[in-house]
Write a structure and sequence with these properties.
By secondary structure, the protein is α/β, with parallel strands linked by helices. It contains 8 helices and 7 strands. The chain has a 7-stranded mixed beta sheet, sandwiched between helices. Helix 3 crosses helix 5 and helix 7 packs across helix 8. The longest helix is centred in the last third of the chain and has 24 residues. The radius of gyration is 19 Å and the shape is globular. It starts with 7 loop residues before the first helix and ends in a 26-residue tail after the last helix.
Length: 293
């Protein structure tokens, strides 16, 4: 599903980032650029709003209805692989996924609905809560957890919240690639923070990799429609005999290795980071940086 207008500049940012070896760098345009004081106000308002249980419940109903409608649009072009791997889980977990679309959380959501009749809480960058329009409404009315890159906030609010949810049998989705790269097929290195949280709260990690396959039908002038295959990979557990730091390093490496193996199996090619426009799923531009068509 294409959200927003022309994607040419975003794709050129992705191409530039790949060329420079910056695989976790921002590629999107026009993200909110606000001060720390404004961030504090936005997140404070969000937390107060969530604490108004009845009001939050009533205002969030249309948001969940929208998500269900978006899923209905994708359901017939989505397949699932590896759901049986979730049978071994005994409680809550952290879910990781490649990040390629503002609404790509629908795929992890569909997995958890199928297996557990649950929907995940989604960890979202603080500035997203300052967005306006439809995306701003969704960020502020769905099951979101803001993350601020401040040690005091992480220690006192964020990590305890993750522990509380996982301990209650809930699922928390975190994007270890951090930045969204629109329709980028390839897995990118996993930042270690996600797995540090997992180690600190003793949570297993459920890696998901979404494969994207071009269809013959146009979505808009720039993109073809896509088929999706949602792959549930092997669950990763922290080792209680190891330090949080060692666990986070090894778990991040394991998650990335699983994604790379899945990518190479799905797309039948060895992973490299030589950019080609075919790396952008559904993109109809024919020019190529490597000679491929």
């Amino acid at each position: 599903m294409i959200i927003g207008g022309d994607k040419s500049a975003v794709i050129e940012n992705i191409r530039k980032n790949v060329k420079e070896g910056e695989l976790n760098k921002k590629a999107e345009l026009d993200d909110p650029n606000i001060s720390d004081e404004e961030i504090d106000r936005v997140i404070g308002d969000f937390e107060k709003y969530q604490n108004k249980k009845v009001w939050y419940f009533l205002k969030s109903r249309p948001a969940f209805a929208m998500v269900n409608a978006v899923w209905a649009m994708h359901k017939n072009v989505t397949e699932f692989d590896g759901l049986e791997k979730l049978d071994e889980l005994k409680g809550g977990a952290i879910v990781t996924s490649n990040h390629f679309n503002p609404i790509d959380s629908i795929f992890a959501r569909a997995v958890l609905k199928k297996k557990y009749h649950k929907t995940p809480y989604i960890v979202v960058q603080d500035t997203n809560f300052a967005m306006t329009g439809l995306l701003g409404y969704l960020f502020n009315n769905l099951k979101m957890i803001p993350i601020l890159k401040r040690p005091n906030y992480i220690i006192k609010k964020f990590t305890p919240r993750i522990k509380e949810l996982v301990g209650a049998g809930e699922f928390v989705q975190i994007y270890p690639e951090e930045e969204m790269w629109f329709n980028y097929r390839k897995p990118r290195p996993c930042k270690r923070g996600t797995y540090l949280f997992a180690a600190q709260v003793g949570a297993p990690v459920v890696p998901i990799f979404v494969e994207m396959v071009d269809l013959d039908e146009d979505d808009n002038e720039q993109f073809r429609k896509l088929k999706y295959v949602v792959h549930v990979l092997d669950i990763i557990y922290p080792d209680p005999e190891k330090s949080h730091k060692q666990n986070s390093k090894e778990m991040a490496e394991k998650d990335y290795e699983e994604r790379v193996a899945c990518y190479e199996k799905c797309y039948r090619e060895k992973l490299d980071y030589k950019f080609d426009y075919s790396d952008i799923a559904g993109y109809k531009v024919k020019k190529s940086s490597s000679g491929k068509k």
